[in-house]
Amino acid sequence: QVQLVESGGGLVQGGGSLRLSCAASGDTFSTYTMAWFRQAPGKQREFVAAISRNGGSTRYKDSVKGRFTISRDNTKNTAYLQMNGLKPEDTAVYYCAAVRRITLSTLVSAYDYWGQGTQVTVSS
Prior knowledge:
Elements: E1 3-7, E2 10-13, E3 18-25, E4 33-39, E5 46-51, E6 58-60, E7 68-73, E8 78-83, E9 92-99, E10 113-114, E11 118-123
Parallel strand pairs: 2-11
Antiparallel strand pairs: 1-3, 3-8, 4-5, 4-9, 5-6, 7-8, 9-10, 9-11
């Protein structure tokens, strides 16, 4: 099984940028579909973006298309979420997720492994 550790969260002004990283260990990273989810206070965890095992396919939540970019480096066992044009409504705890299956599912239940989360706060 794989272990996931997120980093890169913080406080940023609206319109600013952050890059989140998800470092994986414990298994062959390139065999896992990777995804990012987020959870705001009082709300359900929601899908943000997913990337296929070789990085050739991606999928995004509509509200982040054109602002966020998911990527991965299989040589570094790390997935990334570049977030530009941040808005206050992007404020949430961001979670990295992984599943050893060919999928770009938006469902929380489709992913087997989760990191501990990293807080992103966007001020207006």
